[in-house]
Amino acid sequence: MEKTPSGTAVGVDDPYEHAGLCDHLTDEGNCRYAFEHPEHDPEFARERREEEFRCPVADPDGDWEWSDCPHYRCRNRDRECIRCGLEERRMAHSDERPLLEEHHLSYAGGGETLSHEITVYLCRWCHAKVHKSWARIDDDVNPDPEAIAEAEGRRSKEQVETAFETAAERYEREK
Asked: Which helix (H) or strand (E) holds 161?
């Protein structure tokens, strides 16, 4: 199983099995990175420009894999735990700790710098289990009871906030 630089498990054997499309890929199959940041990798940008910025991985005739691209990045945008399915319930204007945390699947090995960013969301409870045990991100599990209780508590607060209350009623209640 993949490990972090400090030696804790990340919950996968191959991060690319859990990665999706590159964040830099446009709907037209072009490489946004080469277009927007040519100064970061002039040779890569020049090659993409010569091919009208076509992404070599998205090219059906190409033989590149996501792992071949030097600028591949895939950050999961779904706001739910990929392990247990717990959905995020964010409280506006609150200092409460989020239910979901970003979990990195790709780490550099042997002192190398991180070349690809591959991240997914895990709830706090699954995140701890993955890093502190042999739990895997693709385990078929239900949300932890404590996680469900925390999410339901936030849901209750949301419902209270969406209930109509005049300013006068709120002011009277706060006295």
From this structure: helix 145-162
Please spell the DSSP secondary structure of 25-65, one letter per residue.
B-TTSBBHHHHH-TTT-HHHHHHHHHTTTB-TTT-TT----
User: For the chain, what is the domain count?
Assistant: 2
Judge if 36 and 118 occupy the same domain. no
User: How far does Cα 38 stand from its chain's mean position?
Assistant: 25
Q: Tally Cβ neighbours within 10 Å of residue 112.
A: 8
Q: Rounded to two decimals, what is the model's pTM?
A: 0.77
Q: Which of 17, 27, 37, 170 is nearest to 105 (CA)?
A: 17
Q: What stretches in the chain show pLDDT beneath 50?
A: none
Q: Which one, of 24, 28, 133, 36, lies nearest residue 83 by Cα?
A: 133
